[in-house]
Write a structure and sequence with these properties.
The protein is built from 16 helices and twelve strands. It is α/β, with parallel strands linked by helices. The strands form three sheets. It has a seven-stranded mixed beta sheet with strand order 2-8-7-6-5-3-4, with helices on both faces. Strand 5, helix 8 and strand 6 form a beta-alpha-beta unit. The longest helix is centred in the last third of the chain and has 19 residues. The protein is globular and about 65 Å long. The structure holds pyridoxal-5'-phosphate. Pyridoxal-5'-phosphate binds next to helix 4.
Length: 394
């Protein structure tokens, strides 16, 4: 099915060793999802019915009162906050982002003020709300949160992600207890977390997932939580949610992705990923100057990645340069390079085939063997500043 795809659309072929990244086309959608999307595209439907069916599936899988589909997880944050501000009052829905007469402050721990490709604080501002950061970057105590909540507070945002500061933050349970005791609803960004039930169980009022990450669905977002808030989220389609709306194909694709998640052989998939990692560990540990090990997922998703530490003194190049070197050649091999400044990158086995892992190891070896020949500068391992500077002439 993929034969000739890159040539046909004149795109550089890539091997994704990076994970489920929106900027790389997110995930490889499952065949039943692809089929359901294709089936839906020629059909007419009354959208509220489709969203109601989505709500039933979301409620079952997330142990939630209700749910709805949005454009993406980021849209879910903006829509969720809008819902907390307006409730079901349609005049308020149409008034946003002008928040005159509404509570509009959203508390968020400073260590959660991340960028996932766009700044999360901007997702708060989109519906007209105002972020209120609490605590220090690496320490938030209960009194910081309590002190940040005022009579203007309309919601609290909590982020579960490898992007956040991992230490010194309040656990979700404590965060939610404090917010709930003051009647402040808690929205949790769990865009790429595998656990569909635990965050609501820990006290979240709304959670927002990406349909196009671990769920292997189409570009979409899944909101789940309290019935009154989900109803208010859905109503935003007639307001600020309109430019973030999702079509029938996105909703049907997300429904099928959720149903497939229920049936998936999670243990079997994990075994295959582990075998792929073991292969990489075996091959790359033979390269002098690299220290290769397993890296568990920082937020406890069931993914183990391969960590490749680069000894710059012995190798003569650093981790950023090695990662950038992997892009040279066809296909481009894109490793997970968030931490190259700390001297390492990761190889993420999700979304990879066995052959992709062979290509990735080959490429790292080739770069190693060719060191000194044409080692790229590597300060921007994915080369995006160059791509964006020239765009659209690329
Ligand atoms: C990926 C991600 C997002 C954005 O998800 P989209 O569905 O692409 O909008 C938001 N927050 C976190 C923590 C993410 O990892």
């Amino acid at each position: 099915m993929t034969d000739g795809f890159y040539e046909k659309y004149k795109l550089p072929p890539i091997v994704n060793a990076c994970g489920t990244m929106t900027h790389l086309g997110a995930c490889s959608a499952l065949a039943p999802v692809v089929n359901a999307v294709a089936e839906s595209l020629p059909m007419f439907v009354q959208m509220p019915y489709l969203q109601a069916r989505a709500s039933e599936v979301i409620a079952r899988l997330c142990d939630a009162e209700a749910g709805c589909i949005t454009a993406c997880a980021a849209a879910g944050i903006s829509v969720g906050i809008a819902a907390c501000m307006t409730g079901e009052d349609m005049s308020k829905v149409e008034q946003l982002p002008d928040t005159t007469g509404m509570k509009n402050e959203v508390v968020v721990m400073r260590g959660h003020c991340v960028a996932f490709g766009a700044p999360i604080l901007q997702m708060i501002r989109i519906p007209g709300a105002k972020p209120v950061e609490v605590g220090g970057a690496t320490r938030c105590n209960p009194y910081h949160l309590e002190g940040g909540i005022t009579e203007r507070t309309v919601a609290a945002l909590y982020v579960v992600s490898h992007h956040t500061v991992q230490g010194g933050q309040l656990p979700l349970k404590t965060f939610a207890e404090i917010c709930n005791s003051k009647d402040v609803p808690v929205i949790v960004d769990v865009a790429s977390e595998y656990d569909l039930k635990g965050f609501l169980a820990d006290g979240a009022d709304l959670v927002t997932y990406s349909g196009h990450k671990f769920l292997s669905g189409p570009t979409s977002g899944i909101l789940a939580g309290r019935l009154d808030l989900i109803r208010a989220c859905y109503l935003q389609e007639r307001g600020i949610g309109r430019p973030m709306k999702v079509g029938k194909e996105g909703i049907i694709g997300a429904i099928v992705a959720l149903e497939e998640w229920e049936k998936r052989d999670h243990a079997g998939i994990r075994k295959q990923e582990e075998a792929r990692c073991a292969y990489a560990l075996d091959r790359l540990s033979k390269i002098e100057g690299l220290t290769v090990s397993y890296e568990p997922d920082p937020t406890h998703n069931p993914i183990t990645r391969v960590k490749v530490e680069v000894d710059e003194l012995r190798l003569g190049i650093n981790a950023a340069q090695l990662a950038a070197g992997c892009l040279q050649g066809i296909p481009r091999v894109i490793v997970r390079s968030h931490h190259v400044d700390l001297g390492y990158f990761l190889i993420d086995p999700c979304n990879m085939t066995d052959e992709d892992m062979v290509i990735t190891c080959n490429r790292i070896e080739e770069v190693y063997n060719g060191i000194g020949v044409d080692t790229p500068p590597g300060s921007d391992p994915l080369g995006y500043s160059d791509i964006l500077a020239k765009w659209p002439h690329i």
